[in-house]
Amino acid sequence: MSGTGAQGFDQNTPGVPGTAEAGDRFGSAVRLYDANKDSRSDAAVSAPYENAQNGSVWSLRGSATGLTVEGARANDPKHFGFTTTGRRFGSVLLH
User: Do 50 and 41 form a contact (C-beta atoms < 8 A)?
Assistant: First the structure.
């Protein structure tokens, strides 16, 4: 294995929403999938301890050259209408 083409992202990567904070655990769960059926791998990335352990999930779109931060989004429980707090949203990402 060579690592050729490997990519790394965190909340301080320009274009990734938010700001890295100690203990958020960005990248605790990562799931590659083709969200828009364009034959390119998109990514869901979680930080279950984001914002007082409420958790958030980021989506990064796939491109011809790999993942891109263009159009990256962060979603927390409120985005989906959940009112529960401290439940570490995104701890597990299922396909």
Answer: no
Of 48, 30, 58, residue with least CA distance to 85: 48
DSSP line for 34-58: -TTSSSS-EEEEEETTHHHHT-EEE
CA distances from 12 to 9, 19, 26 (A): 8, 6, 11
pTM for this structure?
0.87
pLDDT truncated to tens, each residue of the chain (95 aa)?
778 889 999 999 999 999 999 999 999 999 999 999 999 999 999 999 998 889 999 999 999 999 999 999 999 988 888 877 778 888 888 76
Yes or no: say if 86 and 79 are a contact pair by the CB < 8 Å rule: no
Q: Residue 69, Cβ neighbours under 10 Å: how many? A: 14
